[in-house]
Amino acid sequence: MKQYIIRRLLQLIPTMIGISIIVFAISALVPGDFITAKNSPTMTLEKAEQLREIYGLDKPVVQRYFTWIGNMITGNMGDSLQHKQPVTKVVNNYVWNSFVIAFFSLLLSWLIAVFAGVFSAKFQYSLFDKLVTLFIFLCMSLPSFFIGLLFILIFSINMGIFPVGGMTTAGLGAVGWEHIKDVAYHMFLPTVVLTMLSTGSLTRYFRTGMLEVIRQDYIRTARAKGLKERTVIFKHALRNALLPAITLLGFELPALFSGAIILEKVFIWPGVGQVYLESISVRDYPFMLGFTIFLAVLTLLGNLLSDVLYGVADPRIRLK
Amino acid sequence: MSVEVASLEKNTKVSVKQPDSPWRAALRRFTRNRLALMGLIILIFMFLICFIGPLFSPYVLNDYDLEVKNLAPNAAHWLGTDKLGRDILLRMMLAGRISLTVGLIATGISVVIGATLGALAGYYRKGVDTFIMRTADIFMSLPGLPILIILGAILSDLKVDASDRIYFLMLIIGVLGWTGLARLVRGQILTLREMEFMQATDALGLRDRRKIFRHLMPNVIPIIIVSATLGVAGAILYESALSYLGIGVVPPIPSWGNMISAANNMIDFRKRPWLWIPPGLCILITVTAINLIGDGLRDALDPKMKNR
């Protein structure tokens, strides 16, 4: 196992090099830079040149790539041009706001998906199953921004139950328990939307897994023994149906930290996704590049984690 | 239990009759799937409205008429008008043309790249395989939406003309989406190439190109069809998200996504929901329909999944 993990980690190196080259090349294609994007009226040509020299934007592309990659290897992602702080610090400032939403929607969507999946498999072809199936497809087809906007219009503006956006009530300055309640109140709608987005495919996954399992002989045996139906379904069947889902946890890893770019924009949530979107529009290269690489690393590690978990969960799988 | 026995009996009866061709059997399975049929009908309906509907509209695209600006839905303008007095229904139908076309062509690009590279990797194995699949790994680990947003921003910077932009958009979405299919096709080809009919093609001394495209590819067409259908749904969602952010299809050309960006204006968002809700529903309905069809096709074309 240890050998397998080490080999996989070594294999990540060429992939990472490839990713870094593509990401850097794309960003180098962008005409204009942080200085032009700022579009300041007091900016003279000379001053712009000076600033470019300070930020190192006047060097040739290849040289900039090697400087950047050299820094990245030592863990130095550089300073965000916009926030005037190290990229890692900016990420750290905002990523937890995104994490809260992602974490709760992960919990909720797994909970809903397990129950909906189990029951719609148990009562296959029933009305409930049909409704769940339709719901699954609707969730899988949701344009996130549209549903976010729609919810804000219905629940926040017309019904006035939830705030229009943001993370805290402006000027409230609450601390402690009050602060937590305020944030929970603000995060309700974005969390619901994010949950809907991921529940669809998860439910489908559990439903299929469950359908496969309850057809197996050992389930018939369990029933023949006279066990209660609840014990058969939730103890004997669910355990095996959940097993392959463990690999999905690995794939969820990047989503926990990546921030929901579009939803955060719609709900004006101060998460890392919104900061990232902003960094693209103002050409804040260090942040844009650093965070993109961060996401890619998370994806790769998530894939590795899911493979390892699969080997741990299912003894029939031998990792070599 | 009793249900299973009944269905078994039915199956044996069917097999006594003249066996169907695989495609005919798939068609029969597909038409029995009510959700998938519903999806197909909705999608056809959507295409008809978008491509033929505008011919019956009394209005012309980009026909500014400030005297009728910001009207709520009424008899003359079924879905109202926007701030320039343009008819929303007409714009929405034309936007549908754009969004559907972008989705279809972007997926077409993904399929051509994915199927070809997957087949090459599976057929030649060794170095070719390693190279192609490593590249696929790299593309798969790129964060999709962020890269699309960066590329969209580049298109804006390059001041690409609004109508040329659509082609670049198709290309970008298409090029980033080939990896999934490539993996599937490669896996299939790896097993198929060891089968006896391939030995026959060896014996006949066929050229590689003929072997791959004439003898191997037809066997993976079912996977390609399913993956392409689901791909169109994804591509439409990507396009709409980019257009909503203002870096996909840009005005004056309408697309469902950029019509929704009307909601970025607080007054339009609150007071004039007819500007942005109908196009949003169009996206939702179309993508759901396509997903239903794709799922029905998967059940119909993949005999292993028949029972689900």
CATH superfamily of chain B: MetI-like
Tell me the total number of β-strands of chain A: 2
Low-confidence runs of chain B (pLDDT<50, min 5 residues)?
1-8
Low-confidence stretches of chain A: none
Determine the CATH superfamily of the domain at 96-275 in chain A.
Answer: MetI-like
Q: Can you walk through the features of this model?
A:
Chain A is mainly α and 320 residues long. Chain A has a domain at 96-275: MetI-like fold, CATH 1.10.3720. Chain A has helices at 2-29, 34-38, 45-55, 61-73, 87-122, 127-140, 144-158, 176-214, 217-224, 229-242, 246-258, 261-266, 272-281, 285-313, and strands spanning 79-80, 85-86. Chain A has a two-stranded antiparallel sheet with strand order 1-2. In chain A, a hairpin with a 4-residue loop joins strand 1 and strand 2 (85-86). In chain A, helix 1 (2-29) packs antiparallel against helix 14 (285-313). Chain B has a single domain (23-54, 81-305), classed as MetI-like fold. Chain B contains 13 helices and no strands. In chain B, helix 3 crosses helix 4, helix 5 (126-141) runs antiparallel to helix 8 and helix 10 (208-244) runs antiparallel to helix 13 (277-301). Mean pLDDT of chain B is 84; it is low at 1-8. Classes of the chains: A mainly alpha (320), B mainly alpha (308). Chain A: Its main location: membrane.
Brief sketch in words of this structure:
Chain B: InterPro entries: BP-dependent_transpt_permease, MetI-like, MetI-like_sf, Oligopeptide_permease_AppC, OppC_N. By secondary structure, chain A is mostly helical.
Notable features of this structure?
heterodimer; A: 320 residues; mainly alpha; MetI-like fold; two-stranded antiparallel sheet; 14 helices; 1% strand; B: 308 residues; 13 helices; 72% helix; disordered N terminus; transmembrane (chain A)
